[in-house]
Amino acid sequence: MVGYKRERVVNTAVLPARRGTKRRYSMRRYWLEILLIFAIALMLVFCFTAGAETIPTKNAVRAIIGEASNQGYHGMLAIACGIRNRGTLKGVYGLRAKHVDSQPKWVWTQARKAWLESEHNRIHDGYMWENITAFGKPSWYNDVREVYRYKDHVFFVEKEDN
Predict the structure, then answer these.
(1) What is the reported pTM?
(2) Does some domain include residue 93?
(3) Does residue 77 share a domain with residue 34?
(4) Can you give the residue range of the structural domain that contains 152?
(5) Is residue 126 included in any domain, yes or no?
């Protein structure tokens, strides 16, 4: 018959017949391939859902000090919440700020306390912020809505499309 494909049975797995090959599929290999596909899918899910839990405390504290060392504890808590809501330190200037290294020990203690508290006490849901007083409105200002304001920092979230 033309176009008819035979099927072969190997350890109860039905696999298409292969011409010109002597390689045999076993149930073990079949299940290993299924397991590999499942593991890759699971890794992709975890990669895209990883958030603030993956930010090292040392880096988060440094970023908080760089952003809000002159804002007091409440300002540091607001920045810590913003970082947690963002889930990454990408785009956070404070991480690279040079003045961080010259801050006294009590500022570091406050920043660490703010970071730890922000895990359970989210005072806002903004994940973007700017010091509008010092730097003016950012280019993306029209695409966001304000959700929280403390001293110099204004926190935003993206506007929802209607």
Answers:
(1) 0.67
(2) yes
(3) no
(4) 53-158
(5) yes
* 76 domain-assigned: yes
Nearest to 152 by CA among 137, 135, 133: 133
pLDDT (tens digit, 0 to 9) for every residue of the chain, 162 residues total? 555 556 555 555 555 665 655 555 677 788 888 888 888 877 776 655 445 568 899 999 999 999 999 999 999 999 999 999 999 999 898 889 999 999 999 999 999 999 999 999 889 999 999 988 888 888 899 999 999 999 889 999 998 875
Q: Kindly report the backbone phi and psi dihedral angles of residue 149, in degrees, each rounded to the nearest multiple of 5, phi listed first.
A: -140, 130
Same domain, 62 and 139: yes
DSSP string, 109-134: HHHHHHHHHTTT-------EEEEHHH
Q: Are residues 64 and 39 located together in one domain of the fold?
A: no
Identify whether the C-beta of residue 94 lies closer than 8 Å to the C-beta of residue 61.
no
Which contiguous run of DSSP H or E holds residue 33?
helix 27-49
Is residue 15 classed as helix, strand or coil in its secondary structure? strand
CA distance 38 to 71: 47
